[in-house]
Design a protein that fits this description.
Elements lengths: L1 E4 L4 H10 L5 E3 L15 H16 L3 E10 L19 H11 L7 E12 L4 E13 L15 E3 L6 H12 L1 H16 L2
Parallel strand pairs: 1-2, 1-3
Antiparallel strand pairs: 3-4, 4-5, 5-6
Helix pairs in contact: 1-5, 4-5
Bound molecules: inosine 5'-triphosphate.
Length: 192
């Protein structure tokens, strides 16, 4: 089955290509396509918005992902704002800022959340699935692997950050793996 992964983030595309089962063929968005609106307050609203927007334009089956880092002591921040927080700045600066905000904080609990959505406007279908990985915020930036906030996130059961653990471990336990595994399973069972 052919599905377009509606993302402008090539790291996500790479990760989903590792996660996906062999019966699914993922293709990227064409380069010259407009950017979908992302004005919702929730991961679900934004993921649905992206998937429906691109399925309508491309007239095909599309998956999209809206995801982010949710920090308990910061009331869920940066959450759905993960990408837009300090927009234009690099992730080194964004992570430093988060570590400063967490400086005297003993509660370092955090999780990565991913909502994966399948949409096919012509078939009138939307399916969604959520995946989470719980962990904590490190005391400093560690590792060069992954992307985004990976170098400050330590998943439960490990001492290293996602930035240090590398894509083999991340692709087994990540929020994205959990969300897309369930989503692909539903798609298979429904025989779309
Ligand atoms: P698309 O909307 O085009 O898919 P995006 O990067 O803007 O790309 P989001 O709006 O879903 O995607 O924002 C997700 C942000 O959350 C992402 O840019 C990272 O900052 C963070 N994030 C999500 N998943 C992550 C992961 O696996 N590792 C590190 N950071 C992650």
């Amino acid at each position: 089955m052919k599905i377009v992964f509606a993302t402008k983030n090539f790291h996500k595309l790479r990760e989903v290509n590792i996660i996906k089962p062999t019966w699914i063929e993922i293709s990227p968005l064409p380069d010259d396509i407009p950017i979908a609106p992302e004005s919702g307050d929730t991961f679900l609203e934004n993921a649905v918005s992206k998937a429906v927007f691109y399925s309508k334009i491309l007239k095909s089956s599309v998956v999209a992902d809206d995801s982010g880092l949710v920090i308990e002591a910061l009331n869920g921040f940066p959450g759905v704002q993960s990408s837009r927080f300090m927009e234009g700045e690099n992730y080194g600066r964004k992570m430093k800022k988060i570590l400063m905000m967490m400086e005297d904080e003993e509660n370092r609990k955090a999780k990565f959340v991913c909502v994966a959505v399948f949409a096919d406007v012509e078939k009138g279908m939307i399916l969604s699935s959520i995946g989470e990985v719980k962990g904590k915020i490190a005391q400093e930036i560690r590792g060069k692997g992954g992307f985004g906030y990976d170098p400050i996130f330590i998943p439960n059961g490990f001492e290293k950050t996602f930035g240090e653990l590398g894509e083999e471990v991340k692709s087994e336990i990540s929020h994205r793996k959990r969300a897309f595994e369930k989503l692909f399973d539903i798609i298979r069972k429904l025989e779309i």
